[in-house]
Amino acid sequence: MTGAAGMLGRDVLAALADAGIEAVGLRRADLDITDPAAVRSAVEGAAVVVNCAAWTDVDGAESAETAATAVNGTGVRVLAAACAEAGARLLHVSTDYVLPGDATEPYAESAATGPVNAYGRSKLVGEQAVAELLPYDGYVVRTAWLYGEHGPNFVATMLGLAARRDHLDVVDDQHGQPTWTRALAARLVELGLAALAGRAPAGVYHGTASGRTTWFGLAREAYRLSGLDPERIRPTTSEAFVRPAARPAFSVLGHDRWARAGLEPLPGWQAQLADALGRPAFADLLKPPSES
């Protein structure tokens, strides 16, 4: 798998180990996914390749779209071509940002795309490469609002600020599905096994938690579950936090396609969050500096 040093990649490697599956994890320093010769060599002999490598700086992509597309688009095309040559299946992690964010009901896997920022456009190029080069062996798993133990994320930021601020103003007009990387990682392993067994049709899957909330709702629930006063979280609008890249207002995804692979959708976001907050990395954020 690629992107082995990232927040999701580290959890995928752990999930593979838990399942007793032999895997090779490659970091950015180990493999440049835009290098065709290096990628062909890395993919040779693999049955399934999980691509977690990505340019993830959403705001930075606005002023560096070519560089973002080189990784999220061209690099994915190189991976897909190598997988096609080697006869390997590719599980490619994508994003809700390929969608326009103007819906009022969950986006189906077949919904029309329409990115509102450079990052989304770069990721869409990658999705299109997988569909073109691996029509029967390519799996695009769109996810969103990720948080986990092994990298910076919204939940960790909110908990880390608890000791320094009495109140936090958090956006309440963007809707999505907070998704724990550990839960998504386990599902990626299950999908890969289903693909090898011929049970999972190729195409787009939505790898997000069930249910929906806002960033405000997520922050309040994180505080409540951590024994903090949720009233310390106050609602505000996106206009109060202007960013270089536009954000989709609605990132709620539908999960119907999992049934075709014989798999259930991921659990609800509250259940995932409760499980995640029991992990040491999150608990440590609430300790006084002298104890952490």
UniProtKB/TrEMBL annotation:
InterPro entries: dTDP_dehydrorham_reduct, NAD(P)-bd_dom_sf, RmlD-like-bd. GO terms for cellular component: cytosol. SUPFAM superfamilies: NAD(P)-binding Rossmann-fold domains (SSF51735). GO terms for molecular function: dTDP-4-dehydrorhamnose reductase activity. Keywords: NADP, Oxidoreductase. Its EC number is 1.1.1.133. Residues 1-277 form the RmlD-like substrate binding domain. One of its GO terms (biological process) is dTDP-rhamnose biosynthetic process. Pathway: Carbohydrate biosynthesis; dTDP-L-rhamnose biosynthesis. It is an enzyme of class 1 (oxidoreductase). Signal peptide: none annotated. Catalyzes the reduction of dTDP-6-deoxy-L-lyxo-4-hexulose to yield dTDP-L-rhamnose. Belongs to the dTDP-4-dehydrorhamnose reductase family. This is dTDP-4-dehydrorhamnose reductase. It comes from Streptomyces subrutilus. The gene is rfbD.
